[in-house]
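name: query_chain
kind: protein
chains: 1
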Amino acid sequence: MNDFDHDSLGVMMADLARSWTAPSDLGGTLRNVTKAAVDLIPGADSADILTITGRRKYDSFAPTSALPAELDSVQAQFGEGPCVDAAADGSVTRSDDLENERRWPQFTREAVRSGVRSIVSFRLYTHSDVAGALNVLAMKAHAFGDEAVTVGEVLAAHAAIAVTSGQRESQLRSALVNRDLIGQAKGMLMERFSVGADQAFEILVKLSQTSNTPVAAIAAKVVGLGPDRR
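structure:
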């Protein structure tokens, strides 16, 4: 979307905000974000969201074409690029002409070879152990102005909320599954060995400490043995 007036932009952003408040899966929400980035950011040709967990795990989400994910792989391989910088240190990282870019030599070489000339990355403030950025690519130089940055920052904020909510939902689901497994394992140990609930849990903890294995994993193994195994 190269030309827009502020009134129409406001209406579109409001519509997007309302749509994102409805229950949705994380993937669907992030696809809405990257699609909106291409539709609303002047000069944008493609977009995706890259998350970095720890130092080594890079994941591309909701790419609008194959190109952003391919360039994310390059950033993961060399540990350099605008998304890496935006995710780790700055709120916005922009290059107006990659042919003259010197900050990320290995990434830049591959990006220019792919036809990308401009890129802007917006940090996702996820407040967790996962860093990330919304990446927007353009096939021409000097594609992104101040208005593009303003729109991108709003979309990145929505993406950050979605990522954080998705992580919390996943953690909650995992906690509930683990709780159920531990409860089942305790019940089976109580029946097998005629012990109380506290003693059954102590058995799980001892096994966990001895084998250096999480309690939930021990519980899953106990449950997997079945009710008649000792």
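note: The helical segments are 6-21, 26-40, 66-78, 82-88, 105-113, 146-193, 197-211, 215-225.
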